[in-house]
Batch of 2 targets.
Target 1
Amino acid sequence: MERGRRKRMILELLKKHFGYESFRPFQEEIIEHCLLGKNALVLMPTGGGKSLCYQIPALAFSGLTVVVSPLVALMKDQVDALNANGIPAAFWNSTLSPSEMTQVEAKAAQGRIKLLYLAPERLTKPEVRHFLRTLSISLIAVDEAHCISEWGHDFRPDYRNMLLHQYFPGIPVMALTATANARVRDDIVSHLKLEEGRIFRSSFNRPNLTYRVLPKKRSFDRLLAELKRRPESSAIIYCFSRKSTEKIAADLRANGVKAAAYHAGLTSAERTRVQERFIRDQTPVITATIAFGMGIDKPDVRLIVHMDLPKSAEGYYQETGRAGRDGLPSDCLLFFSTGDRVKHEYFIRGMEDPEERQRTRRQLQEMMKYGELRTCRRAFLLNYFGEAWPEANCGACDICVPPAATESDAEAPTEFDRDLFEQLRALRRRLAEDARVPPYMIFGDKTLQEMARSFPQHTERLAQVFGVGKGKLAQFGEPFLQVIRSYASERGIGEQDVAQTVVRSRASTRRALTSTMLETVRLFDAKETPERIAEIRNIGVGTVIQHLEKALEQGRALDASHVTFSSEERLTRIAEAFRKTGNDFLAPVRAQLGDSYSYDELRFARLILKTAPRHGVAQEEVLV
């Protein structure tokens, strides 16, 4: 198949099954490489879209894709999510009864499933290998591939015993991980025989995450305050011991927070119940040991807290990576005390293997450095994985931004209708309960926010919204359209252009200005217009306006007296529309004024109104 046709095909699969119009960085390149039947190691951060890298090829291949996944308990959720998107998938593990196992085997043999999930220990069994070799397998995807390395933070011997190159020669292998330094990467390539493949390494930076470290003193009070500021938001609280998870969960419940503990001391049934309640938004807060979280696809976790020092930077990065997988702003908080080292040292001294002791102590020392940093935390984490951070200020950690400015953006203004969003969330919850699936499998928060921003009222418009695929449109589209139509009709709001709305991928918390923003401000202070600045700097006018608005958010005083608007009459109308809405959101203003007012024009007007209020209306009355 020639490349142009292949690109069109994978984009069509992406939109049909997942509702996305375009790929994230590296995804398309990885998929095309895989479709050529080549091996690959994919290094991509949690939330970066690793799963799509093998799920799209699985749909394109004629044969079966086998997915090796380490946690049996989570396979059902992964398979349910695929089936909800119209993709035939199954898991094959010890939780199934003999008759269910036979059904899965029959479907696989008949070519009725595209993806088959199984655990690495299953692949070590001769009878399983024999059965798989009777099938037409197009691809083997090894998820959480860092588990193959003794140098990784979660080594599992069964990963080394799969011997894929020996028992499944000629079948391309894709290894995927979110946490692998250079030594772990070399181990993966060596043991899976990927030397002739290609390594795809995307940035480990998670721009929507804010990193903070606080002293352990009064940690519970601070934790409670963090959770109270995010009512109903999902959060994972990591603790050092089982006893701590139980105590903190009990204390949180005593303070009105819905919380449950999760640790290895619970029965399998108890762990499953806690996990399902968390995934279905019935228990928003989980206090857990590190046993919780790997492989969980819940995209809307807004807060990750470590009550104690993690044992390695790899583990910390992976655990914090469970926040904000949907790309929306989320927070990562570590309560730090040098005394935590003593608890870790106790276990290190009990290790019999001197190499393991040395390796574990070295990993712990890196986490101690992180807790005691006086430089950018984001830069430290990226450097640990061999990636340089080019900016002097990341704008999203407690070192780069004053503590008061790095707190969660939970109450910060966002450009979507909050009331409609809450109504859509309530509908999603009801539909999820009826279907007995997690709410995010209906639609994610990002999709609901886009609906609450663009007010789609017809099937064709809803189909353009991020995350609305063909299957979900047919299954769930009408109930959501009914809620949106009713809400919009009562308020006289029309449909907005989906293509012109923006889904924010970074936190809208207060950020320090970058060097490029400061240069824009300098030129503006020198009385250059936005159009002239764009010309001088070879950037878009819209980017210039964004820089200036960021400066205003930081409290910079800007004088826009040298800037003129296209029409004084139009500016007055825009000012009046902002005054009526009572905030500075663009979508409600455009809904009032109509399509003849573009978003760029409204942004420009908003900038002028913030910097040079006039037209007989005080600034605080226009934009609150």
Target 2
Amino acid sequence: MQTPKLEKRPKKHKFHTHEIEDDYQYLEENWQEIVRNPKKLPKKIADYIAAENEYADEYLKDTEEIQKTLWKIHRGRIKEDETSVEIKHKDYFYYSRYRKKDKDLGHYSIACRKYKSMSALEEIIYDGDYEAKGEKYFSCTSALSLNQDKLAIGTDTTGNEEYLMIARDIKTKKILTKQPIKTSGNFFFAKNDWLYYTVLDKERRPFQVKRHTLGDKPSNDITIFTEKDPSFFVSAGLSHDDRFVFIDTSQHDTDEILFFECDEASPKPRLIKKRELDFEYDVSYHPESDSFFILTNKDKAVDYKIMKVSTKNPEVENWENFLEHKPGRLILGIMIIKGWLIRSQRENFDEEIIVTNLNTNEEHKIEFVNEDGCSIGASPAAVDYDSKDWIRVGFSSMKTEARVYDYNCKTKELVLKKKQTIPSGHDNSQYETKKILAKSKDGEVDLPITLLWKKGMMKKDGSNPCIVTHYSMYGMTHSASFSVLRLALVDLGFVSVLVNVRGSSAGGNNYYLKAKKLNKMLTFEDLVSCFDKLIEEKYTSKGNIVISSGSAGAMSNGFLMNNYPEYFKGVCTSVGFLTIILTMVNPKLPLSKIEEEQWGAPLNSKTAFEYIMKYDPYYNVKKQKYPMLYFSNSLTDPRV
């Protein structure tokens, strides 16, 4: 079968003293319209995409049987009629469940609740299978009214992440909005008839907060806040006790937060701290002291500290230290219930949950099973504010299936609520997981590598195939959690590897901050150091590695296959960010302005332009032998 060819329409661009050529810029024409309605895609381009898909199917034809086998194995490890752990909210217990798959059923969750007891009759408040009927694509988000009698529902049927929101009565199913309202998918009730929501601008950026009154026309909705800087994205939400509305407008490393009482008829948002470049803060409300607890990097607290301030005088000059900064202890987040502050943190590459008694300031760590590379987390959505000392936490590792616990902050009792069900069976004693450290090429940092293999199949002579998952962008760090998808390959003798290098925050926030802009290539070189460590320790060998990443992580894939193709058997890339320069010099694309603090501003800076051109995957393709490549993309993804 002939390789599909896409028409070239060369176009030259001059930036600073450099001239570059792009053969395919015409593909971006009318992108906003196509994202909203994929049927607007020009026929020539649609035909090319169809030809690429046909080519991929034909190329992989001899793997159809192994594909079917792997698919069967995956399906056998997934409980189709799964039910979540219930969450108590006021007088109801809420949970979701799935039907067993049958034609059009079993693809989407059913939201349910029971009144006062889990032995009560089930009430279905939203049935995803029936709501999605007839749609080729369906995504849904929802919000419950404060008195729990109404549900706001947002649906996206194109994949462009613009949600049409309606509200309806839970019991009667009566629609309470006169017409669907366009939102970014971020919406919530404040009081029973007010719906707050955020709006996308024409470049698909969330930039505005509005309020809708049920029964009124959307054209009468009032605007609460508008962000004028396209490099800031807006979100909004309620405090845990439903008293305050918070508006957060932020870049990746800069925050500005406003608040007002949720029952204000004419809201006048009050600023907590004016935006200041690279000043970060997040706010949680504590009703007993009528104060805000603030997670922040103020005073060069690079790994964050916790401060406290009265809601009456929340200005930054009144903030007081609650928990001092400790370098190397990265605080990932905080949540508050009555009498307790819970923080999740990472130290020495390990994740922990620490519980602080707000009456005595005494603290303790929640103890889980000690495994290399475990993943743990506390869920603030799983408890009411006045939950009487109980929180919901989770645990898993690369070899141990997920467990959900209720934890009593006072007695330290850990109650297992649910263990992930693997219908075909899973014995974690048959697998081995280990964390090793590589050293970066510049000698500055250790790089954590978490491995999983099946006992008896690790040869330690370099012959094991290895699949490496990575990302390490925006400070995001992959937790070494359980995944049924990786087990099928591990059972065949693969070593499954998870790496977090500079660009992530695995080793603290400096890990991330030092691999931005003119230091971005540290991320790529750190990955090579990890591959060298795996080869040196004979877990695998050069040319026996498959790497997998997506979105911005695919930038690393592009650099690696352009510069180190001999390391890899294959490269898997999904919705890849592979045209860095062409994205960053186009201010009309959704992320161009907000991403400048990550990669630099090549439109304005010759230095930034020249540095990005050194690693931009699109402009560094060479005439050389490449590993096997597999790309998957989305037509309506508004980001890449």
